[in-house]
């Protein structure tokens, strides 16, 4: 079965057809198609040997390059990791990994295919959240003037350049290091593709040619989902530490001794609100089975991230912090008072 697909290349759209093949163990793009449309490719960290059904080496040889391309199927946009090889008359072949990732609805009788707008996990989450109140109903009426600040879309804006941009200053004797590449389960591959697609879309990461790399892997969360992690221990060892202090918990608790009413605010994607300083992004590059990427915004795991973020928050809220109107611990804000009217005044 073949389906029409739009391939995004340098902001332009190339029309083609993709062959859906459940017997293929990957997602592939024809090397001739790549050359014809000048599609940029990256070298694989580890070349992939190609074998025939009988186990003999394929005449097309080893796969050495890949391309990470946005593919549009109707109104469904996905980021696809495509291995570059010879495919005969086919431009693109989407195999079992793509079928698992997109889980399309196929009508073999009529020869049609429809791709769900969401993954299974997202669909379950959406069904669960249907019973949750609309955003306006979840926010007290006296704060409705600020509803736009609670919208997820507002939090996805790429941060502007500021004096607080996160610098990664390395020790003079630091030697750039490569790292181990972690293999992944099929479930983790799907989660990785979703992570890369989302963060590439936001501009939070980009492809990298850095001479140094940190490992990338997933850990299980309590709710059964996967948390992406970068292991920056080697980078952190070679980083000059920022001595900017975090507030002492005991001091914060003392300031609350007479408080009776509280408003707690937790910033969405707190660290992602700060850029990595221009020229330092490559130092935080991380290696995945889909290639090498570098963050353009601050991620968890960098040793000086807490100090950078606390300095950022303290400077922005300096006046009201000195007036003891709020407490701030990194991305958590607590507004407090001994009476409700005063609390609402401070919050507004």
From TrEMBL:
<dbReference type="InterPro" id="IPR053134">
    <property type="entry name" value="RNA-dir_DNA_polymerase"/>
</dbReference>
<feature type="domain" description="Reverse transcriptase">
    <location>
        <begin position="200"/>
        <end position="348"/>
    </location>
</feature>
<dbReference type="Pfam" id="PF00078">
    <property type="entry name" value="RVT_1"/>
</dbReference>
<dbReference type="InterPro" id="IPR043128">
    <property type="entry name" value="Rev_trsase/Diguanyl_cyclase"/>
</dbReference>
<dbReference type="Pfam" id="PF08284">
    <property type="entry name" value="RVP_2"/>
</dbReference>
<dbReference type="InterPro" id="IPR021109">
    <property type="entry name" value="Peptidase_aspartic_dom_sf"/>
</dbReference>
<dbReference type="InterPro" id="IPR043502">
    <property type="entry name" value="DNA/RNA_pol_sf"/>
</dbReference>
<dbReference type="InterPro" id="IPR000477">
    <property type="entry name" value="RT_dom"/>
</dbReference>
<protein>
    <recommendedName>
        <fullName>Reverse transcriptase domain-containing protein</fullName>
    </recommendedName>
</protein>
